[in-house]
Write a structure and sequence with these properties.
Elements: H1 2-21, H2 31-55, H3 58-102, H4 105-121, H5 126-136
Helix pairs in contact: 1-3, 1-4, 2-3, 2-4, 3-4, 3-5
Length: about 140
């Protein structure tokens, strides 16, 4: 939870600093050069959802519990959370890069909103972890 909050906070701080540091004037890159960045953002957002579905599959978690025990299961859940938070932070970084190329603060805002959705969807809820541990306790 602490690491997840730290990653989300650092992403928000990058966005705030980027908002104030963003130069004004004519864009340094044409719109066609910025399009691949937004394709990347789209694929990262979809990848976060797909990765979450993959990382919290019951069969995978059961196998981890059988191989590594309860501590290994909790470690895997922690690693999953850090991976998903890193995807959200990468979205903010891509939006920051896009806004620096286009000189458009709207790009930064869009990336922060998309990253916010990714952070909210992947938030590590204690009740979900308790449910996973309780259901896999007898395995």
């Amino acid at each position: 939870m602490i690491v997840y909050g730290a990653v989300a906070s650092s992403a928000l701080m990058m966005a705030i600093v980027g908002w104030f540091v963003l130069p004004t004037g004519q864009p340094s890159a044409p719109a066609q050069a910025i399009l691949p960045i937004w394709v990347l953002v789209f694929f990262l957002a979809v990848a976060a959802i797909v990765a979450r579905r993959f990382l919290v599959r019951w069969e995978r978690l059961r196998d981890i519990k059988l191989l590594r025990g309860l501590d290994g299961l909790l470690g895997a859940l922690q690693a999953n959370t850090v991976i998903l938070a890193a995807i959200g932070e990468t979205i903010v970084i891509a939006g920051l890069i896009s806004s620096f190329f286009s000189y458009d603060r709207g790009d930064l805002v869009r990336a922060v909103v998309i990253a916010g959705v990714v952070f909210i969807l992947n938030f590590p809820r204690r009740s979900a972890w308790d449910k996973i541990v309780t259901n896999l306790k007898d395995v």
